[in-house]
Design goal:
Layout lengths: L3 H15 L4 H7 L4 E10 L5 E12 L5 E8 L4 H18 L5 E7 L7 H15 L8 E5 L5 H14 L5 H4 L16 H19 L8 E5 L3 H12 L3 E7 L2 E4 L6 H11 L13 H5 L5 E4 L8 H6 L4 E3 L8 H9 L3 E3 L1 H4 L2 H15 L5 H26 L3 H20 L4
Parallel strand pairs: 3-4, 3-5, 6-7, 6-9, 9-10, 10-11
Antiparallel strand pairs: 1-2, 2-4, 7-8
Helix pairs in contact: 1-3, 1-16, 3-16, 4-5, 7-8, 7-14, 7-15, 14-15, 15-16
The structure holds NADPH dihydro-nicotinamide-adenine-dinucleotide phosphate and 2-oxoglutaric acid (AKG).
Length: 417
């Protein structure tokens, strides 16, 4: 089984060499600054006490407060969260945000717990983290298995336990909250929309008419479903969706809104419109124009890369392609828009939420989405141009650009001895 942190560090090492990053900066960045692990007890509905393990990995904060999501998933582990935290440092730097990188999570499957148990787990986790998070220090956000409701509980717990009277500014302790409690319009759709905005830009460069193309999406949660909605509005056909239950294939295109509603009610694609599901293997070998992995890391390994029959992969998920698979895809001339660029829409709009919380001035949705488009398209062209100039993949170009920004800041500030 590939390890995410190792995969990310391999590309980081290559990029450091190509970007001529000093040994000192390489040494600072190759491990996270802080690895926080908490074990905390929570009383279940049955009265039983259960112990949970939570992580917050703070990779680097030279550019600003640590920033990155919290994941609730049974596979959460230290290696995974370290890899995800390093990706956040690179993602924020590439997007030009005044944030560093962090990631966290709790190892459990939310599907096995009641809403009130999930609320208690969330509140106890925030309590256990204490001052390790804060609106000017480390700002969590949603990731797999968490969403606006989780962020609302987190903010509420932090406000009630921090001891500070500055309720307004403290709202920015987490982003991705619901709009009524201080979230921004546009955050829910930001990551999925951002992925498609990158695909739209790629399409313009390749004289590619999106409305004539077929798309396949792994994962139909926050990222996958919003990407599908934007594709649908552009007239494109999403012909297959894969989740843990299997692969839904509909030749004429999946009815995106109905599927979103169905999953919200039933928890998965199983049973949708009476369709028989295909296998995971059939998803990864399906002939289509574009694939959007929007689930877990390491989904496209050697086998899936050999089987792939698409022209472009836009990484909605973090780290969905292993190092070896990256090489195979390059040999097959399958292009990749890398995670640190393609899924940066989420953290970009999180930044807008944080700004709105600080100023107490809330923006229209169209303004948020316009600003998102400006930022992500700017990053897209920086990556594209650099990949041509240096003759490297878009992933390497993205890492190189992000590392150069960080290197420059360290060099101008100097390093504390
Ligand atoms: N939310 C955000 O703003 C951002 C998310 N990302 C990344 O995007 C990815 C998805 O996140 P998000 O949409 O928020 O998560 P969600 O929890 O909303 O959705 C996850 C989706 O992935 C599916 N999934 C999980 N495990 C598997 C598997 N083994 N095989 C197939 N499908 C699977 C789930 O299906 P099932 O119900 O069957 O488990 C579900 O459809 C993650 O990699 C995350 O790090 C990146 C940037 C920002
Ligand atoms: O919105 C954020 O702050 C972080 C989103 C995230 O976790 C990610 O981009 O992987």
């Amino acid at each position: 089984m590939d390890k995410l942190f190792k995969n990310v560090v391999n590309i980081f090492n290559q990029a450091c060499k190509k970007a001529d990053i000093s040994k000192t900066i390489h040494t600072i960045l190759k491990q996270p600054k802080n690895e926080i692990i908490v074990n905390f007890p929570v009383r279940m509905d049955s009265g039983e006490m259960k112990l949970f393990k939570g992580y917050r990995i703070q990779h680097n904060n030279i550019l600003g407060p640590y920033k990155g999501g919290f994941r609730y998933h049974p596979q959460v582990n230290l290696d995974e969260v370290k890899g995800l935290a390093m990706l956040m440092t690179l993602k924020c730097s590439l997007a030009g945000l005044p944030f560093g990188g962090a990631k966290g999570g709790v190892k459990f499957n939310p599907k096995d717990f009641s809403i009130s148990e999930i609320e208690k787990i969330t509140r106890r986790f925030v309590h256990a983290l204490g001052d390790n998070i804060g609106p000017n220090f480390d700002i969590p956000a949603p990731d797999m298995g968490t969403g606006a409701q989780t962020m609302n509980w987190m903010m509420d717990t932090y406000l009630n336990t921090s001891g500070s009277l500055d309720r307004q500014c403290l709202k920015g302790v987490v982003t991705g909250k619901s709009v009524k409690v201080g979230g921004t319009k546009g955050r829910a759709q930001a990551t999925g929309y951002g992925v498609v905005m990158c695909i739209e830009e790629w399409a313009k460069q390749h004289n590619y008419k999106i409305s004539d193309k077929t798309f396949i999406i792994q994962g139909f949660g926050n990222v996958g479903s919003w990407a599908a909605k934007r594709l649908d509005s552009l007239g494109a056909k999403v012909v297959a969706v894969n989740d843990c239950a299997g692969t839904l294939y509909m030749k004429e295109g999946v009815p995106v809104r109905q599927l979103t509603e169905y999953i919200a009610e039933n928890g998965s694609i199983a049973g949708f419109m009476g369709q028989e599901l295909l296998s995971r293997e059939e998803f990864f070998s399906m002939k289509a124009d574009v694939m959007i992995p929007a689930a877990l890391e390491n989904q496209i390994g050697e086998k899936e890369a050999h089987a792939a029959q698409v022209e472009l992969i836009a990484e909605g998920a973090n780290g969905p392609i292993t190092n070896r698979a990256d090489e195979i895809l390059a040999e097959k001339d399958i292009q990749v828009i890398p995670d640190v660029l393609a899924n940066s829409g989420g953290v970009i709009v999180s930044y807008f939420e944080w700004l709105q919380n600080r100023s107490n001035d809330y923006w229209h949705e169209h303004h948020v989405l316009e600003k998102l488009q400006d930022k992500i398209i700017k990053a897209y062209h920086i990556v594209h141009d650099l990949s041509i100039e240096l003759d490297v993949s878009k992933r390497e170009a993205a890492y190189i650009r992000a590392l150069k920004n960080i290197d420059e800041v360290y060099n101008e500030r100097g390093i504390f001895p």
